[in-house]
Amino acid sequence: GQNIDQPTEMTATEGAIVQINCTYQTSGFNGLFWYQQHAGEAPTFLSYNVLDGLEEKGRFSSFLSRSKGYSYLLLKELQMKDSASYLCAVRDRVNQGGKLIFGQGTELSVKP
Amino acid sequence: DVKVTQSSRYLVKRTGEKVFLECVQDMDHENMFWYRQDPGLGLRLIYFSYDVKMKEKGDIPEGYSVSREKKERFSLILESASTNQTSMYLCASSLETGNQPQHFGDGTRLSIL
Fold it and tell me: Cβ separation of B106 and A43 shorter than 8 Å?
């Protein structure tokens, strides 16, 4: 079956670094996406990985290991505004539609 | 800038009513999606469409139907609304190429009384 696992909640301190893990088991793989969702708002795109390795984008980085079915999102220099839910999603096929399979999200709380 | 517009932010309907949720995108995207989001269950795909008049069932299509008569518009229909369809509904669209993310609308919080 299709399964994506993330921790439900995490807490971190302002200015620190936090790593949010995601493991997946899907019938196909054509890329992994990370989204950020603030309470009451729509998810917004953060990063995309399709090849193994690290993608860096400012304070946010995302890593992928396809052989392990594993990804993480790394947030550096945490700010209070980073308090949000972080969603991991896998695109399961190459052809038409390209639907995403979402994990349940990790609720990150950043404390002063 | 990318824009996905959902017709209502909040909607209240009664059990048994036929409910229409509309979504319009202005990016000429091939793919459009309807999700519902519930606490503890995450985002669940209801239906998606990869072309005009084409549709595919997602993970939870029961009780819903969709319509895509024009490329920019994707409608979700609750044939006979029930209280267990009270939820946040999110529409998204994307280009067909693999590395393109889905862009989401602001969502419709639907309450069925």
Answer: no
Mark yes or no for CB contact A104/B48 under 8 Å.
no
8 A C-beta contact, residue A32 and residue A64: yes
Q: How far apart are CA A52 and CA A26, in angstroms?
A: 17
Contacts of B23 in chain A (CB under 8 A): none
Give CA torsion, residues A102, B84, B56, B50, to 10 deg: -60
- The pLDDT tens digits of the residues spanning B21-45 come to 999 999 999 999 999 999 888 899 9
Beta pairing partners, A29: none
Pull the structure tokens for residue B93.
């669209």
Report the alpha-carbon distance of residue B76 to residue B23 in Å, rounded.
8
pLDDT digits (tens, 9 = 90+) for A41-51: 999 999 999 99
